[in-house]
Write a structure and sequence with these properties.
The complex is a heterodimer of chains A (about 210) and B (about 325). Chain A is an all-alpha fold and about 210 residues long. Chain A has helices spanning about 20-30, 40-55, 65-75, 90-110, 120-130, 145-160, 165-170, 200-210. In chain A, helix 3 crosses helix 6 and helix 4 crosses helix 5 (about 120-130). The longest helix of chain A is centred in the middle third of the chain and has 20 residues, at about 90-110. Chain A is elongated, with a radius of gyration of 20 Å. The relative contact order of chain A is 0.20. Chain B has helices spanning about 5-25, 50-80, 90-105, 115-140, 145-150, 155-175, 190-215, 225-240, 250-275, 285-290, 300-315, and strands at about 185, 190. In chain B, a hairpin with a 2-residue loop joins strand 1 and strand 2. Chain B is globular, with a radius of gyration of 20 Å. Chain B is mostly helical and about 325 residues long. The chains are: A mainly alpha (about 210), B mainly alpha (about 325). The interface of A and B includes residues 180 and 182 of A.
Chain lengths: ~210, ~325
């Protein structure tokens, strides 16, 4: 993966004027999310982890964003979206039912649990879910297409971009608190923002990013 | 949607700029012997009076130039000097400030060619800048809408450079007077000309404050001060410009001094405003740009100083 913001580390802002004590506490809590499930069962957790690996595959040369842990935290703490499709059960129940149904579909199609399948087999099942073609009693009437679109995709991608590692990839400065943005126009950049690498400018960009804050 | 009244404000400001420029560009009758017959009121004209007044006006031009320099530095830095021309007000305001310092120290009774050139260039740059800012607003989607007037490059800011240049240029005309002779600018008494320019300048600057404080929803009652005090002062000094000579005007002088004070107090209030933004002054790199403009209010001080110089001129050289 190309590094669009070479040398940029959003955590280097920790002691600059960009963050205050509250910001530091929020980020610390986010980085300290337990890596074991509090909400999901061991089986659900394995399936969830496998789904996360297919929805947002992560490079092997850095520690992964703990996606299943963030999804688990959202369920365990009951962090709701504020709305729910009438055809869908509450979020925790939706996930439990959806993961069980996916596992059941894996056993039916390939004779093994979802997490034990090859990446291609997993993708095939997820694609059928996305298209609304995974049908079975285990879904309990929940449309698999809706589950994919309104639980699987948002919960996992939102979890990904809640993590500083993802912020480094997109040059995001994290919470704008207390320091936010002044230059709002297109292609304008505040001096404390990440510098995007232009072609052939890598070294200079790296130097600038190491001085940001 | 209602027709937006913005073009009116634009034309008013443009008119202000043009008037100010007209004052500088009209052929200037440098000096003339005032009267063939001795005036009824025999009064010795202090030979140093014109120079004293000119130096006061140099100070006024300097204060405005300093405000423009600081304000355009901050705001154009915020704009990342996106357009190369954005460096122009920094250069010309610095020069205007330097010319004013030089003029303040200069006790000679002749205009200085370099100062003259700088002041004229400052007024011209201010005029071009004003047109440029107006052009920029018109270019944005929505054109002359309130949104664009509030958040685009301000019209009043470059107009302040017109005022600095105008006051400085007028200072040179006042100075360029034979000692003991009443200074004349463009055929009228210099005091009246400067008073009229001051009155217009105060009204323009108050309009700018009105627009931006309206944007700020007058959330602090003190935000009403620059839209109430300077217009009163403008009326009083305007009255002096067109009213009777030989009148003691303690009220006008008081309001001018009050306005001068208000300019500095305004910066103080703006400093508090910056502190109230998240992160306060510790986050100055954002809040100095995001908060109320710290160097803008002293423009009022500069104009009030010019008004005081005008009052002095009219008292020293009554023209009836």
């Amino acid at each position: 993966m190309t590094d669009r913001y070479p040398g940029y580390d959003v955590l280097a802002r920790r002691w600059t004027e960009s963050w205050n004590e509250t910001t530091r506490q929020v980020i610390d809590q986010r980085l300290a999310v337990p890596r074991e499930p509090r909400f999901f069962s061991a089986t659900e957790w394995r399936t969830l982890s496998a789904v996360c690996d297919r929805i947002v595959p992560q490079p092997k040369d850095r520690p992964p964003v703990p996606l299943p842990a963030y999804v688990d935290q959202k369920m365990a703490d009951g962090l709701l979206d504020g709305y729910r499709y009438a055809q869908m059960p509450p979020q925790g129940e939706a996930w439990q039912r959806g993961l069980a149904a996916l596992d059941a579909a894996a056993k039916e199609a390939h004779g093994g649990p979802f997490h034990g399948l090859s990446a291609e087999q997993q993708d095939g099942l997820l694609r059928r879910m996305q298209q609304g073609n995974l049908i079975g009693k285990a879904w309990g009437g929940m449309p698999c297409k809706l589950f994919f679109e309104h639980r699987v995709l948002p919960d996992i991608t939102h979890a990904y971009y809640a993590h500083p590692i993802a912020w480094n990839e997109i040059g995001f400065g994290g919470p704008a608190s207390p320091r936010g943005y002044v230059r709002m126009g297109l292609d304008r950049r505040d001096p404390w923002e990440a510098v995007e690498a232009a072609l052939g400018e890598g070294t200079d960009t790296r130097r600038k990013n190491n001085h940001g804050g | 949607m209602t027709r937006n009244p913005a073009p009116l404000a634009i034309s008013a400001t443009a008119l202000l700029g043009l008037t100010a420029l007209a004052l500088t560009l009209r052929p200037v009758v440098g000096t003339r012997v005032v009267r063939s017959r001795p005036p009824v009121h025999i009064r010795m004209i202090d030979p140093g009076a014109a120079i004293r007044a000119a130096r006061r006006m140099n100070r006024a031009a300097g204060v405005i130039a300093a405000a423009v320099l600081a304000d355009s530095s901050i705001e154009h830095y915020r704009g990342s000097f996106h357009n190369k021309a954005m460096i122009a007000p920094l250069v010309i305001a610095s020069l205007s400030l330097a010319a004013s310092v030089h003029g303040n120290a200069d006790k000679r009774s002749t205009a200085h060619r370099v100062r003259d050139g700088i002041y004229a260039a400052a007024a011209l740059t201010g005029l071009i800048g004003t047109c440029f800012h107006i052009f920029n607003i018109g270019k944005k989607s929505g054109g002359f809408s309130w949104q664009n007037l509030f958040y685009s490059a301000p019209i009043g800011a470059p107009a302040a450079l017109i005022l600095s240049g105008t006051m400085g240029f007028l200072a040179e005309r006042v100075r360029d007077t034979t000692p003991g002779v009443a200074p004349i600018i463009a055929g009228v008494s210099a005091g009246r000309a400067v008073a009229a320019a001051t009155s217009l300048g105060l009204l323009g600057t108050a309009s700018e404050a009105a627009l931006l404080h309206f944007r700020g929803a007058y959330h602090d009652p003190f935000m009403y001060l620059p839209v109430t005090i300077p217009p009163v002062t403008a009326a009083l000094i305007g009255n002096a410009a067109f009213g009777r000579a030989r009148e003691r005007r303690p009220m006008t002088r008081f309001w001018l001094r009050f306005t001068a004070l208000l300019g500095f107090a305004g910066s103080g209030f703006h400093a508090i405003g910056i502190a109230r933004n998240m992160g306060g002054w510790r986050n100055w790199r954002q809040n100095l740009l995001n908060g109320p403009p710290l160097p803008a209010p002293p423009s009022f001080t500069g104009l009030a100083l010019a008004g005081l110089a005008a009052l002095g001129l009219m008292e020293d050289h009554p023209d009836d």
